[in-house]
Amino acid sequence: MSKLPLDFFLNNNVQEVAQNLLGQTIYTNINGNISSAMIIETEAYQGPEDKASHAYNNKRTKRTEIMYKNGGCCYIYICYGIHYLFNIVTNKINIPHAVLIRSGKVISGLEYIKKRRGNHIPNSKLLQGPGNFTKGLGIDMRFNGLYLDKKQIWIKNTSTVKKQIITAPRVGISYAEKYALLPWRYILKN
DNA sequence: GTGCCGATGATCT
DNA sequence: GATCATCGGCACG
Description:
By secondary structure, this protein is mainly beta. Helices cover about 10% and strands about 30% of the residues. It has a single domain, classed as Methylpurine-DNA glycosylase (MPG) (3-methyladenine DNA Glycosylase, Chain A). A hairpin with a 2-residue loop joins strand 1 and strand 2. The longest helix is centred in the middle third of the chain and has 8 residues. It is globular, with a radius of gyration of 15 Å.
């Protein structure tokens, strides 16, 4: 169980990285409080060609600039004014691919995660959904632009060799026309 | 379990 | 001023 090296994210196939991330364990350290989660749901966003991506057509703005960095970098943005969404930039510099992390399963730091989410939330739902995932792990805009080899955030290689993956269309992007139908959402079975 | 709906603000035109 | 890579609460039944 070793830390994932950053070159894991330099792969030029973002769909492959999104699938390889399933079963890996992500850690956050918020003021010394460490919590971790197994990644169980991801979505691939293939920048320039993908109408659902913020970087469609190589669009460069202040917000999307992070996506043009080298793979292994965190891309955080606010969705619907309320929720932080966590993406990992993939591929080489100037190629704006990214993987959205949608759901996880608590591995450690349950007490911190419950505190951030509220005690009435059942354990199985603590990190379900992209907004809940970031809230539970304490991820916010401070993480935007951080690489995954920092003391605040990192990923350990805990994926089993054999895993069963369910594919599905991505969520909340009906405006993306034919790209909305592509099965670029990946869910770990069980 | 499913379905509707308001909250809420950064971002871009 | 419009557009969202969402969530929780409430109404069903």
